[in-house]
Q: What sequence folds into this?
């Protein structure tokens, strides 16, 4: 596994565009650190500091930081599809196979790299969230600090699942731009199917079915935290309550899709004439 990861890292770090995109994909999520220290002066009447609003308290901080960090995954998605596009355009895929790398090892090298970067991103977000929380949070008890750290696991699984989907699209079309376009097509398709099921049955049934779709299931791992933030300010308003927790069946769905995408990528490569 380490040999395959090293092989991929060599290719990525020799590519200037990939290095820039990897740097951006890791730096942008840390804008939450900047936001936490922002003070907004409203014409001298009062000063608003985001960190003082309680949104960086434990345990809600795990939910907020992982949700916003996940929005920047598109940048590394470009790296993933580029890994495949460059292999075909530079003919390195054929050379790798000639040099003794099996087709299975080729796909695994891409997948292991995805897991490596996803794990690295999760550790960085985890450490930064912990530091922000220790600075701003009113609650510093160990039991409260570690509560809801399952959002970090959800963040990791979400990244691996999404990048595995990008890997599959990259293998399918061999072109980076088209592969990214397929993500948009899949998003539109999922919503069209949602509309058709809603029209045939009702929205509640359609939404439950949509939760099993690839993109939607990945999104559901970490639900939006805005409603929860409002709930902390208005705890008596029961009508805004919702289920924001991470559930085991959501992990199972995304992990299943990840396995499917990696397997399909391997099948495509195995049947393709290089």
A:
């Amino acid at each position: 596994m380490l040999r395959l990861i090293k092989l991929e890292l060599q290719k990525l770090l020799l590519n200037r565009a990939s290095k820039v995109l990897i740097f951006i994909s890791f730096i942008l999520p840390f804008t939450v650190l900047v936001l936490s220290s922002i003070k907004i002066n409203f014409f001298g009447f009062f000063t608003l500091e985001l960190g003082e609003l309680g949104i960086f308290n434990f345990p809600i901080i795990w939910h907020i930081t992982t949700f916003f960090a996940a929005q920047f995954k598109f940048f590394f998605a470009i790296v993933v599809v580029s890994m495949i596009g460059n292999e075909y355009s530079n003919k390195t895929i054929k050379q790798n196979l000639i040099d003794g790398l099996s087709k299975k090892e080729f796909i695994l090298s891409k997948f292991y790299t995805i897991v490596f970067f996803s794990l690295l991103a999760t550790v960085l977000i985890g450490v930064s969230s912990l530091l922000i929380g220790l600075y701003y949070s009113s609650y510093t008890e160990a039991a409260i600090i570690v509560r809801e750290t399952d959002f970090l696991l959800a963040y990791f699984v979400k990244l691996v699942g999404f990048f595995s989907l990008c890997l599959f699209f990259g293998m399918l079309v061999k072109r980076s731009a088209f592969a990214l376009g397929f993500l948009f097509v899949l998003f539109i398709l999922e919503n069209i199917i949602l509309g058709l099921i809603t029209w045939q049955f009702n929205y509640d049934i359609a939404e439950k079915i949509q939760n099993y779709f690839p993109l939607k299931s990945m999104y559901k791992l970490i639900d939006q935290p805005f409603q929860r933030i409002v709930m902390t300010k208005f705890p008596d308003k029961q009508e805004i309550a919702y289920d924001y927790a991470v559930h085991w069946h959501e992990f199972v769905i995304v992990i299943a899709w990840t396995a499917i995408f990696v397997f399909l990528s391997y099948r495509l490569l195995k049947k393709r004439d290089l």
Notes: The chain is about 75% helix and 5% strand. The chain has a mean pLDDT of 84. Strands lie at 39-42, 46-49.
